[in-house]
Task: structure prediction
Amino acid sequence: MRWISQIVLCCTLALAGTARADILDQVTTFTLDNGMDVVVIEDHRAPAVVHMMWYRVGSADEPAGASGVAHFLEHLMFKGTENMEAGEFSQVVAANGGSDNAFTSFDYTAYFQRVAADRLSLMMQMEADRMQNLRLTETDILTEREVIIEERNQRTENDPGALFREQRMAAQYLNHRYGVPIIGWRHEMSVLDMDDVMSFYEAHYAPNNAILIVAGDVTPDEVRALAMEHYAPIPANPAIEARDRVQEPPQQSERRLTFSDPRVAQPYVIRSYLAPERDAGDQREAAALYLLGEVLGGGQTSVLAGKLQFEAQKAVYASAWHAPTRLDDTIFSKVMVPVPGVSLEEAEALLDQAIAEFLEEGVDEAQLDRIKRQLKASQIYARDNVSDLANLFGRALTSGLTVEDIGAWPDLVQSITGEEIIAAAKRTFVRERAVTGYLMQDTPEVSQ
Amino acid sequence: MRWISQIVLCCTLALAGTARADILDQVTTFTLDNGMDVVVIEDHRAPAVVHMMWYRVGSADEPAGASGVAHFLEHLMFKGTENMEAGEFSQVVAANGGSDNAFTSFDYTAYFQRVAADRLSLMMQMEADRMQNLRLTETDILTEREVIIEERNQRTENDPGALFREQRMAAQYLNHRYGVPIIGWRHEMSVLDMDDVMSFYEAHYAPNNAILIVAGDVTPDEVRALAMEHYAPIPANPAIEARDRVQEPPQQSERRLTFSDPRVAQPYVIRSYLAPERDAGDQREAAALYLLGEVLGGGQTSVLAGKLQFEAQKAVYASAWHAPTRLDDTIFSKVMVPVPGVSLEEAEALLDQAIAEFLEEGVDEAQLDRIKRQLKASQIYARDNVSDLANLFGRALTSGLTVEDIGAWPDLVQSITGEEIIAAAKRTFVRERAVTGYLMQDTPEVSQ
Result:
């Protein structure tokens, strides 16, 4: 039995538009006296629960020079506490027929278990334990550091697309730590030590920086009683303040990158723009950009697929997307993977031309209606999967949004007009805030 | 009477090659028990001294989000102490017939006064006072913050070339704070407060983080006696450790920027490469790159001027230079300013071609000999200006070099061969570590 750590490298877009006001019907929220927020999502169709602890801390909250420490700590949270041996946490979950998991992103770190409903108390007991009693040895640090470095080898060093994305994001953000990879820069990961880990743990892991989400066959009263027993006794950390991160200066110059690697099988051109994210009480621009992504790049009926794959037959793939759920400025991306024989310069020109035509023609109302209907339908399905719902709440709440924002989002998306989408596109598609990248197969260029 | 604050935005290259072993003949160094290093440079031709205090802290040591605080503190050091009124420092210097100045760079912050030799004790008394007794009011913070923001307006916002450089440096450095402007990002400068300033002052201003340089009509014994009186009583700050900054990850993708501004009078193309700086005991590669800059770009007889200005008549200016004296990885730069009618794309291609020809042809030995003779000669002149010599020592010592490194540099430069220069060029001119920028006059591009 093993647990799986996940680095969330890009938003799962399928979820971003699925919530609707009526999902709040099955949701109850309250806050413990020590500041821990609690979200209960009821679903009594099966006798199981998902128990999640979301911390309002991610890689973008790391101190300079300690990149990767958020994810490293996530791994180390499966080591011992004062009360449990290293590895015992996941063993107990498995022995009780459950599964567990954890993941780290820019804005959050989350731990979750899926178990039979009657094991919820045990999960809380163990999660509360490691929130306050983590005990690491130097051996834990050294061995797990090898693990995360190997994870970087697998996910990043062996994948030219991932290396390319790192270099692009470092160029996209001039100041903000979204420009630093979640998994960390290798040279910084390799010197992460006990002090880096424990100071990060002590600074950020506390009930007043956490959101408990319990979803499944459970009532709010049951969750409240168990939370009072296991989590309420943990003292708040008064030193934790609202997150106040380094922000971007004006981006005044388009950046262009070429990344060449012999391992590249499929060259492509990709452009990302610094773009607004969903802000609490102010989600309309992000909603328009989210729909813009769907209109331009949402599958085979999208504008870019239609123009570049089917009409011009110049692309094997063309898409666009917005990652709306972030704490700070996010990005809107467009990509075109040309057919063989079409250069990246041509591909970029074709992509630009397709976008220019779209901005001129406006949004096709029939397509927009179809997208909105699909998003409405997906909300029905979303209610069927409490893990997805719990994830949706966790991501939004750790990205600075409120339960009300989550509830308002579906109707807001439905209310966006084609004109608003075009206006948002024009505001966002400004080259000075863009990074354009070419991923190429080889390195024919004479270096100089 | 007013003092002049300077932000040192690029190395004064003229100095970098001027030191020679025999300049150490006039130099005496010692260290006080509290860790303050002292350098005495004797020059008895005029009854004046330069008194300098160099701190081993610059903008690249600032905490994330507080860009500009090193320079802000430099301004505020002219406010009051427990013993002096705001502005009194410079008034006293002036009343004694002297002048004073201060400057901030990536790696250091320095304060100096030029006075009659018999006023040295007074300078030390005042400098020691503000090293430990700075007292600021909220009004000081608010009013001086307006001053530095106005300074940014003048130096940066009103100068498209300066804005362009900021954007290029932010793209050049993926992780290191050399990518953040010395003067600061405006949005961060505008919220610098008392706590930012005082915590920076307390963390970095102490005798064990300072280098006293006294140059002029003074003996080492006199300096030692006065330093014992004024500086030795200041306690060391044991919390100060060797500087350990965030370093660069591998740079794997060339970045290209275009900066368009209607105020641009003269478009140009510029490329910078991440490049080795002088390291203690390991200066040979930097010396080769320094000479490479001289060979390629050192004036009207340089390779780039010859090929691009005089032979091809395609450039109004073409140059190259290396900034060797930095604590961490520096840059090597090339620029071409085309004649009217030559596009930046053509200019870049011509520049690339000129470099390719140079790498093929090798270094002209007669030109290299001439450059070396000029550097030798400049050392003679350097001894005539104790301010320049003092600056040279201050910059090198705050960039991690030793007095021995400074002494060794001139002979090292003389010993570099043409083959070594070409080899260093080939190691450095790697596009993956380069930023190529176009500064253009207007914004004809349709944004998308």
Observations:
- Residues 8-21 of chain A have pLDDT under 50 and may be disordered.
- The first helix of chain A runs from residue 13 to 16.
